[in-house]
Amino acid sequence: MLKLAVFDFDSTLMDGETIDFFAEELGIGDEVAHITEEAMSGRLDFFESLQERVRLLKGLDFEVVKKISHNLPYMSGARETIAELKSHGIRVVCFSGGFTTATSYAKDILGYDADFSNILHEKDGKLTGLVGGDMMFNFSKGDMLTRLQSILGVRKEETFVCGDGANDLSMFAHAGTRVAFCAREILEKEANIIIREKDLSLILKEI
């Protein structure tokens, strides 16, 4: 019986990559999207790629960051899937290599219990190009998951995880139910449930 469900945010609970939306405001959408794809496919170190992409956002108005973060397109079936899991007493958490401006705002909209992500540093109302937080490394999601399992008394076989990219691999190692959602090949290889349609509610038929 599942007790803990952990979802990635970008391209999982949300349809797209938050940082790519920011980059479009500066006219560098293609450049940042390319780096994102390389990182999510496992061809770039996640920490280095995150630093590089955030550095390119330097100078973006923080009010614009908040506006974009509060108007993101959520994935089809996200609310329904989270509500159904919670109705069975399962704790639902979001781990994101993205940013609190998006994940903390979406928490009450989508209904998950807690979010762990990164913080964009801003000064005088503009992004400085610096970032810090809980989810900056390839190993971060797995590390946080094992901590949560310890606190909550949840075993590997009682844990569900769902993501789409290489930085989700570390949490896949500590979960019995591993969902690759519209995912890169590197993650599908480690999954025991594969969903290739943009509808999170399809997961409910598999667990």
H/E element sequence: EHHHHHEHEEHEHEHE
User: What share of the residues lie within helices?
Assistant: 25-40%
Strand order of the largest sheet: 4-3-2-1-5-6-7
Instruction: Report the CATH superfamily.
Output: HAD superfamily/HAD-like
Tell me the distance between the termini. 10 Å
Would you tell me the overall average pLDDT?
Answer: 96
**Cα-atom Rg, whole angstroms?**
16 Å
Q: Into which percentage range does the β-strand content fall?
A: 15-25%
CATH topology category name: Rossmann fold
Record field, number of beta strands: 7
**Largest sheet, strands/sense/barrel:** 7 strands, mixed
Q: How would the global form be characterised?
A: globular
Tell me, what is the CATH class? Alpha Beta
Q: Can you tell me the CATH architecture?
A: 3-Layer(aba) Sandwich
- Residue stretches low in confidence (pLDDT < 50, at least 5 long) are none
Describe this structure in words.
This protein has 207 residues and is of the alpha/beta class. The protein has one domain: HAD superfamily/HAD-like (Rossmann fold, 3-Layer(aba) Sandwich). 39% of the residues lie in helices and 22% in strands. The protein is built from 9 helices and 7 strands; from the N terminus they run βαααααβαββαβαβαβ. The protein has helices spanning 18-25, 29-40, 46-55, 62-69, 78-87, 100-111, 140-152, 169-172, 185-188, and strands spanning 4-8, 91-99, 114-123, 126-133, 159-163, 177-181, 193-195. A 7-stranded mixed beta sheet has the order 4-3-2-1-5-6-7. Helix 6 (100-111) links the parallel strand 2 and strand 3. Helix 1 (18-25) crosses helix 4 (62-69) and helix 4 packs parallel to helix 6. The radius of gyration is 16 Å and the shape is globular. The mean pLDDT is 96.
